[in-house]
Amino acid sequence: DRAAAASAPLTDGALADGTAIPLLANLGNADAAAEAVALGAEGVGLFRTEFLFLSSSQAPTVEQQREAYTKLLQAFPGKKVVVRVLDAGADKPLAFLNDAHEENPALGLRGIRALRASEDILREQLTALAEADAATQADLWVMAPMVATVEETRYFVDLARDYGIKTAGVMVEVPSSALLADRVLVDADFASIGTNDLTQYTMAADRLLGSVASFQDPWHPAVLRLIREVGDAGRANGKPVGICGEAAADPLLAVVLVGLGATSLSMAPTALADVRATLLQHTLDQARTIASAALAASDAASARAAAQEAARS
Ligand code: PEP
Ligand code: MG
């Protein structure tokens, strides 16, 4: 029952053959850290820093940021914490950073592009992160959003290293960086796939627009094929590939993502229990077979059905 389940010790994420798949939390605020730990998060796979910036008309100071990042890192001693630098634009517009007159903000100066155009903000954020890292015991990883090119990857990784960040990576949420993942992962220490935006850009369907919501389905084999590219590139380069979009919270899709090469999964903490239980039912070989069945489908609904069928046999 629920009470017994709540008091049972939480095991780390793993497949039936013992392959570890760390299960991490998506967080938007350090105040949510304790609850994530209670729900079994083994660390943080995506800390969205936008909340620090959204409530004010200017960027927070280095001191304000250091305080927030320190609080976050202190909640995860010895654990991996992946912080994403500011992802402003499109669905997360910031008055002091984004141009409200862009006709297509999802295709505009957003994410790492916007930070590069206002590099002081990025430098201050990296300063605050490095200071918080030095004062705490967590394993800090830092990543950039909306990276589209190898050149942007190098730019971000080099800058992060200048500030003493030891592990610097990129989000793969634009098809170009998924297709070039083998090159991106030469320079980046890791990749984290943002399936929300990767689906939006693969299907050319605004993730905020109800009239095209049926296209926003990460089960689509076109999206899965791009994820496979990243998984293969991670294996070839010996680099971790996480998933931090909503797709990781769908238990059967989580199995498919692992079969495609994901080495960790990050999600809303309330989704952790179901994903943990489902991963334990399949070996890595089975996950790969289930993923192959989904990849061979021609649309999202049949990919899901094929995965369900493969998971039963
Ligand atoms: C994503 O795009 O999948 C992602 C995790 O980032 P966000 O939802 O914050 O854009
Ligand atoms: Mg995104």
Automatic annotation (TrEMBL):
Q: Which residues of the full protein are shown?
A: 245 to 557 of 557
Which EC number(s) does UniProt give?
A: 2.7.3.9
Cofactor requirement: Mg(2+)
Location comes to: Cytoplasm
A single Gene Ontology MF term assigned here is: phosphoenolpyruvate-protein phosphotransferase activity
Instruction: Establish whether keyword Kinase is in the entry.
Output: yes
Q: Which reaction does it catalyse?
A: L-histidyl-[protein] + phosphoenolpyruvate = N(pros)-phospho-L-histidyl-[protein] + pyruvate
Q: What family is it from?
A: Belongs to the PEP-utilizing enzyme family.
What is the protein's major site of localization?
cytoplasm
Q: What does this protein do?
A: General (non sugar-specific) component of the phosphoenolpyruvate-dependent sugar phosphotransferase system (sugar PTS). This major carbohydrate active-transport system catalyzes the phosphorylation of incoming sugar substrates concomitantly with their translocation across the cell membrane. Enzyme I transfers the phosphoryl group from phosphoenolpyruvate (PEP) to the phosphoryl carrier protein (HPr).
**The protein's name in its UniProt record:** Phosphoenolpyruvate-protein phosphotransferase
Q: TM segments?
A: none
Give the species.
Microbacterium helvum
Which residues fall in a coiled-coil region? none
* Record keywords, A-Z: Cytoplasm, Kinase, Magnesium, Metal-binding, Phosphotransferase system, Sugar transport, Transferase, Transport
Q: Where is the PEP-utilising enzyme C-terminal domain?
A: 14-281
